[in-house]
Amino acid sequence: MVGETEVSAKPRRRRFSPEYKLKIVEAAEQCRGKGEVGALLRREGLYSSHLVTWRREALAGLQERKRGRKPEPAERRRIAQLERENARLKLRLEQAEAIIEVQKKRLSSTWCGSREARRELDSSRVEEEHCDQGVGRMKAVGSAADDA
């Protein structure tokens, strides 16, 4: 008997299943005599506020409450997913643009410095502007008289 009256160091919240709540509400409804509901509550170790709350829940359709955070709406999850995908694609785009820029610079520097490329220019009568800067812009020359 002594063990029942001792107070624990850290009290633990009691949880009641929906079946137990429904059983108590039904038992309370069956009580007809004076003081029977009080005796039921004392026997089960419950408070009258439990019974009031459980009766409301029974009327509203007894469901077990989920504990913890509520799940994120599907729309928010979709937005977050799209934002992550957008960031990933932006990074890939930046990398691709950097690669293309390097390829352009390498091609223009190779093309400007090559003797064979210059021979091709002379033979096809195309003049290159700003080759020394590595820009690689070209313009067609109208006639052989312009070269002289």
Structure, explained:
- By secondary structure, this protein is mainly α.
- It has two domains: 15-60; 75-146, no CATH class.
- Helices cover 60% and strands 5% of the residues.
- It has helices at residues 2-5, 18-30, 36-44, 48-60, 74-113, 115-124; strands at residues 126-129, 137-140.
- The protein has a two-stranded antiparallel ribbon with strand order 1-2.
- A hairpin with a 7-residue loop joins strand 1 and strand 2 (137-140).
- Helix 2 crosses helix 4.
- The radius of gyration is 42 Å and the shape is rod-shaped.
- It starts with a helix and ends in an 8-residue tail after the last strand.
- 2% of the residues are buried.
Strand order of the largest sheet: 1-2
Beta-strand residue fraction: 5-15%
Sequence stretches where pLDDT stays below 50 over 5 or more residues: 124-148
Number of helices: 6
Keywords:
2 domains; 5% strand; two-stranded antiparallel sheet; 148 residues; mainly alpha; rod-shaped
Short summary:
The protein is mostly helical and 148 residues long. It has 6 helices and 2 strands, in the order ααααααββ.
List the helices and strands and how they pair.
Layout (H helix, E strand, L loop, with lengths): L1 H4 L12 H13 L5 H9 L3 H13 L13 H40 L1 H10 L1 E4 L7 E4 L8
Antiparallel strand pairs: 1-2
